[in-house]
Amino acid sequence: MKLAIVGATGMVGTVMLKVLAERNFPVTKLLVVASEKSVGKTIHFQGKNHTVISLQNAVDQKPDIAVFSAGGSISLEWAPKFAKVGTTVVDNSSAWRMDSTKKLIVPEINANELTKDDKIIANPNCSTIQMVMALAPLHKKYKIKRLVISTYQSITGTGVKAVQQLENEYQGIKGEMAYHYPIHKNAIPHCDVFEDNGYTKEEMKLVRETQKILNDKTIAITATAVRIPVVGGHSESINIEFEKEFELSEVRNILRHTSGVTLQDNTDTNTYPMPIYAEGKNDVFVGRIRRDESQARTMNMWVVSDNLRKGAATNTIQIAEYLMENNLV
Predict the structure, then answer these.
(1) What is the 3-state secondary structure (H, E, C) of 229-294?
(2) 39 with 119, same domain?
(3) Domain range holding 212?
(4) How confident is the model over 301-317, as pLDDT tens digits?
């Protein structure tokens, strides 16, 4: 198994390497790939130093799988070049997600859609992944009619520059700004750029990607995405209206037995998901499950996950694992 990590020096790329090691992914040859300014640097992985190489060098070596986390423009230019030499690309950017010819995959939900012909596979947005992990089994049972979502998103979703901004503000240091405003002691209702409809791209990703992954465009969805000064993961308040009636005990039981989901839902012991506990873990944590008393067949829940793990690196590596285990590469 010859595996390329494109964007290996970035925040998600670094976590990808951790996840590969933790899951004992059977790499025969690892290619660490980054921008020209990083070529020649070394990355330590499983007792060996690996020299960072260029994208063209990686294409020339024809890896079996290339996992991308280097931004949409890089993916649009280079993913087809890898695919052309027979490499299967798993892309973590937004470049291919809404392309009707590309699969948008969360392995626990729809990996069975993949075939050998899928040479560019899209990894969903971090906030979408954790949400659909909790929603998919409930949609199957009760059919979701409408979702109202509010997200409270970690600065790590923006990248190293945002983490540095928060650190600078903690220390009273003036430095480069990742956001238009201070993030320390603040909440910014602005994730990604605004679209013509007044929603941000991040908010519309939750709409479009959820419908695609669950294969149901009839689900009505509205979202507000907020950036908060947290590093451990994204949190989401989700109001779900179903077409069928439900029992909360059954909802909890379904989630309790959903692979990749951990139920943390006991108000008697103040047990509920929080980013401080999700950080560094691969699961999606669900709690604060309660009926919406203002509307029939409707409930609320709180969903938290490490956006760099299941929201990005872990989901990508899981796709690669599925491809290998099912002889699709």
Answers:
(1) CCCCCEEEEEEEEECCCCCHHHHHHHHHCCCCEEECCEHHHCECCCHHHHCCCCCEEEEEEEECCC
(2) yes
(3) 127-306
(4) 999 999 999 999 999 99
